[in-house]
Design goal:
The chain has two domains: about 5-100, Glutaredoxin, CATH 3.40.30.10; about 140-225, NADH-ubiquinone oxidoreductase 51kDa subunit (Rossmann fold), CATH 3.40.50.11540. Helix content is about 40%, strand content about 15%. It has ten helices and seven strands. The strands form two sheets. A five-stranded mixed beta sheet has the order 2-1-3-4-5, with helices on one face. Helix 7 packs antiparallel against helix 8 (about 160-170), helix 7 (about 140-150) packs across helix 10 and helix 9 crosses helix 10 (about 200-215).
Length: about 230
């Protein structure tokens, strides 16, 4: 096979807990043994945790999915021609055609599993920073009004309107205001915030900057509690 092939292996905590690091390392070792040029990108999880570690290969037809993959499966994947998207017993075809994805309209998690979480260029390519650029041309009141009219709500159980929160903070009199991102993930059995922070961290940072501009804060913190 000519040219370099891109392979995606999640670095999400759920994927790592079931051996994603070992899979990524074995892919590199097997490619070296076969003298095949590959590039490994550690992406976020697509959310199909029952298929983790999920390995995706960039082919001419699109990204093709294989999973769940263990290190001992790697040699067989190479033998089967997975680098060009060939069939394998652990293959699922094009990732975007898996019913779990085909039936979704992804908004919050639109970039999760798609991009390299550490690549700002990837983030911009897939729409990142567009909101911040618009915000920079607006006043604090205009930002709050847009958010209020959008109907945006918090992702907690109460679904509290974001515009009301921001308007309250904007109207509060204080010498110093802070934006705090609560990354505690404290609600029982919910890990959606972790998936977003690991798979699309610039989204969180951009949101914090926009919120800061809206309410007049110039300092931000991310709070994570260690268990």
């Amino acid at each position: 096979m000519n040219g370099q092939t891109t392979i995606y292996v999640p670095c999400d905590a759920a994927a790592i807990s079931v051996g994603a690091d070992d899979v990524a390392n074995e892919l590199v070792r097997e490619a070296l043994r076969r003298k095949i040029d590959i590039r490994i990108i550690r992406n976020g999880s697509r959310g199909m945790l029952w298929l983790e570690p999920l390995v995706e290969v960039q082919t001419n037809k699109g990204r093709t999915a294989y999973g769940p993959i263990a290190p001992e499966d790697i040699s067989g994947l190479f033998d089967a021609g997975f680098l060009s998207g060939q069939d394998h017993e652990l293959g699922h075809g094009l990732t975007e055609e898996i019913p779990y994805f085909a039936n979704q309209e992804r908004l919050t998690f639109a970039r999760c599993g798609i991009t390299d979480p550490l690549s700002l260029q990837d983030y911009e390519t897939y729409g990142g920073l567009a909101g911040l650029r618009k915000t920079l041309a607006m006043s604090t009141g205009e930002i709050v009004e847009v958010v209020t009219k959008s109907g945006l709500r918090g992702r907690g159980g109460a679904g509290f309107p974001t515009g009301i929160k921001w308007k309250t903070a904007l109207d509060a009199s204080a010498d110093q205001k802070y934006i705090c991102a609560n990354a505690d993930e404290g609600d029982s059995g919910t890990f959606a915030d972790r998936m977003l922070m690991e798979g699309d961290p610039f989204c969180l940072l951009e949101g914090m900057v926009i919120a800061g501009l809206a309410v007049g804060a110039d300092t931000g913190y991310i709070y994570i509690r260690s268990e």
